[in-house]
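Database export, one record per block. Field names are fixed; values are copied verbatim from the stored entry.
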Amino acid sequence: MIFDEIVNRERLRECLATGTGKGVKVGILDSGVASDLPQLHGRVVANYEVLEDRYHGPRVVALEKGVDVIEHGTACAYIIHQHAPDAELHSVRVIGQSHSATSSKLLSALEFAVEQNWDILNLSLGTESNYEKIARLADQAYYKGMLWVAAKDNKRNKVGYPAGLASVVGVDMDFFTHPGSFRFHPGRVTEVEALGVYVDAPTSDGGWQQYTGTSFACPQISGIAARLREHFPDLTPFQLKAALAALRENQ
């Protein structure tokens, strides 16, 4: 790969204009995805769930089809699909009906994701505990070339992990008129701001809903990353940040 292409704004715009995410595998750690949703066009190719086992700890099991009782993961999957319609989506249900996940379930899901070696991991969730274990897994993913894109905490002065890790693309929210628009701020803990205000997405019962939160800004960047990864299969996390810096709205 020629690094000059990664920071060439016109070349990157061309990649985004022609990219569909074909051949790119995106993992989604969330509340599950309603995989039969027509608007996802069958692109959710695998569904898993992390189950708590009082004797052996959390374990990941495969599901016949995806279910999402709080619509959170489904909205994220739809946003990614809008950006990268040909990307393969792999869902791991970590969050339950209480809108939260235990740190042990999150760690189990992250370990599983690293083993699967998906190209991109969308993490519209986070925690402030188990920093060292999450950082170690993020390092493993980094050296495998796996791109982690994570939402910061919705509270203004909190970041959380994995979003606060240097090897991860941390995403905050703002309002943009176009879902492909974003800002990049070198030197910030969460460098990227993307559309996360009044985001339209379908619900599993056939309706539509507007969402606001960093959770919905995060998949905007995951979808953009999938289109770039299609053109640059060896794109590293460092190079992705360089590409986002080159494409940013705040020149």
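Remark 1: The domain at 3-247 is CATH 3.40.50.200 (Rossmann fold).
Remark 2: The helical segments are 3-6, 9-18, 72-83, 103-116, 131-144, 214-231, 237-247.
End of record.
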